[in-house]
Amino acid sequence: MQPRIKQFPQLAAAALKDEQIQNNLLGLYNGFHQARIAASEATPNWDELSDRGRAIKAHTIDNLDYYLEMVERTVTAAGGKVFFAKDSDEATQYVIEVAKARGVKLAIKGKSMVSEEMGLNHRLEEAGIEPVETDLGEYIIQLADETPFHIIAPAIHKSKEQVSDLFQEKLGTPPMTEISDLAAEARRQLRKKFIEADMGITGANFVVAETGTVALVTNEGNGRMSTSMPKLHIAITGMEKVLPSIEDLGIMLRLLIRSATGQRISSYVTTVTGPRKSDDEDGPEEFHLVLVDNGRSKLLADPALRESLYCIRCGACLNACPVYRKVGGHAYGWVYPGPIGAIVSPMLTGLSDGKDLPYASSLCGACKEACPVKINIPRMLLYMRHQLAEGDNYPEHKTAPLGEAITFKLWRLSLSNSLSLKIFSGLARLLQKPFAKDGRINKLPPPLSAWTNLRTFPALASRPFRKRWKS
Amino acid sequence: MTQSKPPVQASLFVTCIIDQFYPDVGESMVRVLERLGVKLDFPQAQTCCGQPAYNAGFWSDAKPLARRVLDQFQHSEYVVVPSGSCASMIRVFYPELFHEEPESLQKATSLAKRTFELSEFIVDVLGVTDLRHLSGDVAASESKKITYHEACHLRRELGATTQSRALIRSLPGIELVEMDQAEVCCGFGGTFSVKYPDISGAMLQDKLDRIKATGASSVVACDCSCLMQIGGGLEKGGSNVRSVHLAELLDDAIGKTVRPDSRLG
Fold it and tell me: Residue B173 maps to which CATH number?
């Protein structure tokens, strides 16, 4: 997918003016966000579970090479093939080559965020293969030719009226007012595709190294259908999704599902280990697992950012984030929105291109509070800001405007001792005179007018606290 | 209670915002703490904790200011800060800022243990959760509704969610009406409100709507930076709801009485 992360300010401004988006975003706090809180509070020892989940991820990421080799061995032993893709192009080429060699015409897809990184659907179309998303939300945005708005609820920005219009336009269906009718229509459309498809492409929520098992979490059963109906199944996922053991999978599923939707368990949890065995009743004849790096090595190599790879893509930080709840998913301009996206998207596509994202946060920490594996997102955003401003670890991305650097030098000078403070604040008291009235400032010239358009600003007090103290 | 023990000695870090923009809040804090029997000192050379530069990524500009704070409060028994955010800077972020500088790190770790936000200091250090005994002479003729905004850093960096509410609930004549989503950010975020004034403004508008919905006459918070945003928004919208720092609320409740030996001039 072509990143548009350079356009964050414009995309965010557009979202703020979009009534439909604002309306749908309002539902997140009392919806997913409160559901997660209720689910975690109803889970005995949630905090301990969270610590264990974090420890599992930390251990796996610290020993990723070991577990990736194990995955290769176990998947191969189960009769599957493993392909390590260094970037999204390599992954895409592999998928298309395999598909072409088998004469694939129609591919059904389970939800996969990595395939969004690859822009896979368009690439498959170019190769003459019809991709059909089978997750309802993904199906809707595929029809609309959009990208996911939310990690777990890709079409959450659309109203049922918009979906009805979309179905009318793309599928020729009559207008529908009930969500159940829309879902039934999608089911009817997809049924044919499931039966005709030559290939199933899915993501993987987790890959269990000791058994070579891919685990998928869905609420629609489309994961099971995509992995069992076509003759060929390719699972694509980020290399950080590996877990050592089945026991670890149990813990991570508990954390993931509760944090994503507030459910204790999703309607379906599908596990796939290699292709169909001779005594299996169903399953594909051929199974491939594509593990994608696509910039993740950069996160792995930087100790300050490594914990971003602990992310299990539950979306809890999006729902908790007051900025995401205002600007929504498309503003972030790439696959991963919200707080974790503000780290991952710039780091995977180019820090300086995504320089606006680490600053698009009030550092309120709601993401950190919501994260089931306790990823310290604000700390990483601060680190990225530091790298953009004056850091040495990514010198080619040092892009903070000179004006900003000078402003902070002056600011620092003004506060460097009490005499300096006296001089600078005295100067400021003179400068504020034309603007201040009764201790308040109603209007300031640009660029500070951006503040005073919506808020008044306090004037500097005529007698600061330090003068009120008897020493 | 506090009279039976030797007086607690504490240093004030009033923060640059309170010093320059909200000195009345600083005075309120002094009156309240002195009434609680705390012996206060105010290191005159203090300026700013360095947080604006730290948050903007300019750590080389934040460090000299942070080092000044480390030195000025090196020998303080306690440091009281009327801001969850500035207290977080000292307690949580200094150790991170200096994690590669052993000498400063040692000072930062030591200072972190002695630094408290105001409500934490009153409840956790002084062990006071009920201010009723100090407000005996204040006529509480009618009950006043206030609502409380939970400052982000106080909650999520310092983990202090109960102290300020306990103090507010102890005040006679004050009814705490919780607003919806009290723990959600007001949209200030320092430079965030300057870089993204419209996103910040949209967050603020939600906060203002929720404050108004409570019917409270004041909104109370433990951080003047949130109050700058919220109060500025209230005033711009012509609202009568006042934005009040916790120190001011407590000070009002105990009648703004000044101890004869007060250090306020």
Answer: 3.40.50.10700
